[in-house]
């Protein structure tokens, strides 16, 4: 016969309540593993305790293990289908796993109980944006703005939405609204986003002040430094662009793209020795079309047309559909006084069945 068990000092419900409070306090303090111990203890006493299941999901999600966390939210929802915290957690797991359709489905299920929850609405709009559903995303963001005209998540979301669809003027309209809402505390990402719109619109002069404001907030911000370099490049201010390309290279000396951009700047300044050094540094990392082209254009600028043509012909084998290679080869032939070969080179591109305004214009001029 079993011996009688010693009575617990606390009833299970009191113990569970205290463990639950302790677990959530530990979560707030970011003591994730201690919180997991608490919630595990509760689940040993009550395997379907909704507080513990959600707490376990939250704790595991904080560790970045979203698939594992989703299991706990799902177990909670099997027993308590309307648990808002479990719905939120599960949707956020799917979002983190880039399963946006599933996240949308759960958030929309939540809206059946609370269709005016701005947090959920903005998350749905964000998810629609991620799956490139412009119509639904915009409609929900605008619905949020009808409820709360200065909601920053909806305004910034609309900016990103229009930017993603290359509607840069509309993106500017929304991001500039953020400047009016709180001009002294504008998020650095809003400043770089406005600058990037001006880059895309080629209104480089207007973009520069926003990137500079971003750098005042964060002097090493890559996007601000890159944006400034690219604006100065667009304005053909090579020395200014070099200052910022080189600032990036101080932080990331093996950045192949930036090495070729810096090489282009030196080449345009006719500092061919320095340009060659940067192109070769890029090629020492791995093959790069623009670095090879840059070296060929140095040969062309120095009047070494046959050498330039040979390099560009080799490059053509790697990148057959790059119209610029054909233009440069044709221009080398023109400089050699061989218009027939120039025309043949341009016609060679046209036989690929690709349309290019620049190729057509050069053919016409010849």
Write the layout of secondary structure elements.
Blueprint (H helix, E strand, L loop, with lengths): L11 H17 L3 H14 L4 H13 L3 H14 L4 H13 L3 H12 L6 H13 L3 H14 L4 H13 L3 H14 L6 H14 L2 H14 L4 H13 L3 H14 L4 H13 L3 H14 L3 H13 L3 H14 L4 H14 L2 H12 L6 H9 L1
Helix pairs in contact: 1-2, 1-3, 2-3, 3-4, 3-5, 4-5, 5-6, 6-7, 7-8, 7-9, 8-9, 9-10, 10-11, 11-12, 11-13, 12-13, 13-14, 14-15, 15-16, 15-17, 16-17, 17-18, 18-19, 19-20, 20-21
Describe the structure.
This protein is mainly alpha-helical and 366 residues long. Helices cover 77% and strands 0% of the residues. The chain has 21 helices and no strands. The chain has helices spanning 12-28, 32-45, 50-62, 66-79, 84-96, 100-111, 118-130, 134-147, 152-164, 168-181, 188-201, 204-217, 222-234, 238-251, 256-268, 272-285, 289-301, 305-318, 323-336, 339-350, 357-365. Helix 1 packs antiparallel against helix 2 and helix 20 runs antiparallel to helix 21 (357-365). The longest helix has 17 residues, at 12-28. It is elongated. The termini are far apart. 39% of the residues are buried.
- Computed structural class: mainly alpha
> What is the chain-wise order of helices and strands?
HHHHHHHHHHHHHHHHHHHHH
**What is the mean predicted local confidence, pLDDT?**
92
Overall spatial form: elongated
Fraction of residues in β-strands:
under 5%
Low-confidence stretches: 1-9
Measured as a percent range, the helix fraction is over 70%
Can you count the beta strands?
Answer: 0
Radius of gyration (Å): 30 Å
SS element count, helices: 21
**Major sheet description:** none
Distance between the termini: 107 Å
């Amino acid at each position: 016969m079993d011996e009688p068990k010693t009575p617990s000092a606390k009833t299970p419900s009191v113990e569970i309540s205290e463990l639950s409070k302790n677990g959530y306090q530990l979560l707030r303090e970011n003591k994730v593993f201690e919180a997991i111990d608490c919630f595990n203890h509760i689940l040993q006493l009550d395997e379907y305790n909704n507080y513990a299941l959600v707490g376990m999901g939250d704790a595991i999600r904080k560790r970045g293990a979203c698939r594992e966390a989703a299991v706990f939210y799902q177990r909670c929802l099997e027993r308590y289908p309307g648990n808002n915290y479990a719905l939120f957690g599960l949707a956020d797991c799917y979002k983190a796993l880039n399963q946006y359709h599933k996240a949308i489905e759960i958030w929309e299920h939540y809206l059946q109980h609370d269709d005016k929850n701005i947090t959920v609405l903005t998350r749905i709009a964000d998810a629609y944006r991620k799956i490139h559903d412009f119509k639904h995303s915009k409609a929900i963001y605008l619905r949020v703005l009808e409820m709360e005209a200065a909601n920053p998540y909806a305004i910034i979301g609309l900016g990103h939405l229009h930017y993603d669809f290359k509607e840069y003027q509309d993106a500017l309209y929304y991001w500039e609204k953020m400047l009016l809402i709180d001009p002294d505390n504008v998020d650095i990402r809003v400043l770089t986003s406005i600058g990037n719109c001006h880059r895309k619109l080629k209104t480089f002069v207007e973009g520069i002040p926003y990137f500079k404001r971003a750098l005042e907030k964060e002097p090493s911000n890559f996007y601000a430094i890159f944006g400034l370099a690219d604006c100065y490049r667009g304005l053909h201010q090579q020395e200014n662009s070099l200052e910022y390309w080189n600032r990036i290279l101080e932080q990331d000396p093996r950045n192949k793209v930036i090495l070729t951009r810096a090489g282009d700047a030196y080449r345009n300044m006719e500092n061919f020795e320095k340009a060659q050094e940067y192109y070769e540094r890029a090629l020492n990392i791995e093959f790069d079309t623009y670095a090879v082209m840059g070296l060929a254009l140095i040969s062309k600028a120095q009047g070494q047309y046959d050498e330039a043509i040979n390099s560009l012909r080799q490059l053509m084998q790697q990148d057959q559909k790059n119209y610029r290679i054909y233009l440069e080869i044709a221009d080398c032939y023109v400089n050699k006084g061989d218009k027939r070969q120039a025309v043949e080179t341009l016609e060679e591109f046209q036989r690929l069945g690709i349309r290019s305004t620049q190729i057509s214009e050069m053919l016409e001029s010849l």
